[in-house]
Amino acid sequence: MNFEQCFKESRTMLMEAALGERLKREYGLAIDGPVAMADLICHKTGKSALCKLWLEYLSIAEEYHLPFLATTPTRRANQTRVLSAGYDSALLYENVSLLKEIQSTAATPMFAGGLMGCKGDAYTGKGSLSAQEAYRFHAWQADVFARAGVDFLFAGIMPALEEAKGMAMAISDTGLPYIISFTITPDGRLIDNTTIDSAIRSIDQHVKRPPLCYMTNCVHPDILSRALSHDFNRTLNVQTRFLGIQANASPLTYEELDGSHDLKCSDPVSLAQSMIQAKRKFGLRILGGCCGTDGNHLREIAKSLGG
């Protein structure tokens, strides 16, 4: 069964929890270079740490018999950054290869995704691209992932409609299924002030092959619930197309979290309760964790889904 078939047939899919925060805090790894986490694959310690985290998350999906989604740690590994760091496309191939190795051990359906991100700041929208600029800028990474054999592509924390639209155009050309995940605020909008409903409509109408669905990551489910409850987002379009969240453990906003030196998080049970409430209210089908989450949070989410 391929990713698109599994998505259509599954009531719920479990997505990985945090990588970056855990790699820094639990393993003492530095991820502040040009490509962030993408070159951890080049070092024995980094590669081992990634494997341990993915295997931990996969084991939870297996325990609760849920399809599992994981993505390469390559949000910042666009062509400009990869080349400036002295690497080439082999860096992306190696990241996909490691994730595929994990996938080969899975006792539940597992899908390996290629993670992409905006050129500028995902939380302020600074440095975002026009649609045509984004199409040219992101095509290289999308094409490399397609050749490397990922199951799907994932555009993470996209703050601005135009860049998300251009990235969707580039991804659409690969023929791979894909998901666009927005950076959203409690007022129901992307960082560039576009409503969630308008953003979905615009991208769906603009690309040859629309995303499989839309979602958000790096935000608490309570903030998502507030965002989706605004009248302008209570549309059939949003109800049928906005279907997931990789949740922060903290209910604080981006502005409150930005630059924080200590880890902000809520306990696993309360996060899982908020996740399930959002799932029931808005029909979400992909649930996972982002900043501040670990295996304990993901286990409680999976347990709630099983219940």
TrEMBL record:
Signal peptide: none annotated. Its cofactor is Zn(2+). PROSITE patterns: HCY. One of its GO terms (biological process) is methylation. It comes from Diplocloster agilis. Zn(2+) binds at residues 218, 290-291. InterPro entries: HCY_dom, HCY_dom_sf. Residues 1-305 form the Hcy-binding domain. The lineage of its organism: Bacteria, Bacillati, Bacillota, Clostridia, Lachnospirales. This is Homocysteine S-methyltransferase family protein.
